[in-house]
UniProtKB/TrEMBL annotation:
Residues 69-308 form the Calcineurin-like phosphoesterase domain. PANTHER family: METALLO PHOSPHOESTERASE RELATED, METALLOPHOSPHOESTERASE 1. Metallophosphoesterase that catalyzes the removal of a side-chain ethanolamine-phosphate (EtNP) from the second mannose of the GPI-anchor protein intermediate. Participates in the glycan remodeling steps of GPI-anchor maturation to allow an efficient transport of GPI-anchor proteins from the endoplasmic reticulum to the Golgi. CDD domains: MPP_MPPE1. Its cofactor is Mn(2+). Gene3D superfamilies: 3.60.21.10. InterPro entries: Calcineurin-like_PHP, Metallo-depent_PP-like, MPP_MPPE1, PGAP5/Cdc1/Ted1. One of its GO terms (molecular function) is metal ion binding. It comes from the Eukaryota. It is found in: Endoplasmic reticulum-Golgi intermediate compartment membrane. This is Metallophosphoesterase 1. One of its GO terms (cellular component) is endomembrane system. Keywords: ER-Golgi transport, GPI-anchor biosynthesis, Hydrolase, Manganese, Membrane, Metal-binding, Transmembrane, Transmembrane helix, Transport.
Amino acid sequence: MLSSSSTTVKSLPLKKRLCFLLKLVCFVSSVLIFCEFLIYYVVIFQCRWPEVKGGAHMDKKETSTSVLKAVILADTHLLGEIKGHWLDKLRREWQMERSFQTALWLLQPDIVFILGDVFDEGKWSSPQAWADDVRRFRKMFKYPVSTELVVIVGNHDIGFHYEMTTYKVNRFEKVFNFTSGKLITRKGINFVIVNSVAMEGDGCAVCRTSEAKLVALSHKLNCSQQKPNRSNKRCSDVEKLPASEPILLQHYPLYRKSDAECSGEDSAPPEEKNIPFKEKYDVLSQEASQKLIWWFQPRLILSGHTHSACEVLHAGKIPEISVPSFSWRNRNNPSFIMGSITPTRFSLQKCFLPYESRVFTIYCAAGALLVILILAHFQLLTPPFYFAQRLISKHKAV
């Protein structure tokens, strides 16, 4: 009888320790689950599809059935085997995978566009490294049958113009079914895909092929937008496309002097805004930009490359949106664009992802609280009451 009671007394401290350890494990697990999983749902759940504002030429039928829900992101820069540290790679790819999969589940877009620089080292990766990068991309950016994924080429995928080869272009095209000068038409909306790296204008083999496709596509679109005319023989045998003005999708932005006129919390930092852009490196050349505007007269241009947000107006009427990087390696506040698009109108809304600085703040606060709880449990932390009482007793003794 006495021996059983003494055993119970001895086991009490052990039970308390196990209970305290279990509480710590639950606390740490809860913080990890929130910061690495739930936070993406909490943040992206707040994003809403923008409404397409009607005009005089927009009827109820178009509003209800012809709105295409598009997600646009850019510059994922999946790290490669040369410059990518395994921990950095693991962290960034987990963040992008969770963000992308959460966005698909919550927003259910019809189509997703990635505006180039999918990989960071595609310009020099070996066949084995390329295959590994593609495998990881397909795992991170897997999508359901109800959603379409369109990937556009960037300079980090095939190299800048002086690094670009037919082999690298074909390798990218084979994986992503990408072709410069390709037209994608969904719900009567025309999207023109441009290989902006091939807009060098020096007559290289890839450049000639790309420009020839763009010119042919421009002719088709222009003929489709004209009213039927018997005297117009140039359009008599041309395949008719939807008459909707096209939306241009490319990696490089059209020519602009700098980001000095860009604004917003995700625009370039103040110290970088006034740095002049280099043609054919930071932006397209003035000549190539004028060609694209003249060929297509687009109603909207979407581009990436700069990793920062910007909105500019070309020819006084054509808006271009530079989409910021989707990777936390390039920004503290990545985002993507949500677009509600019809054959005649569009409305865009930005959806920010969790700020990495805020995630770190949560981890730091949780770590500090964890230390306090451990010290208090082992009575290594002097309670404020006893500390004040000790000070008073010392003062009286003096």
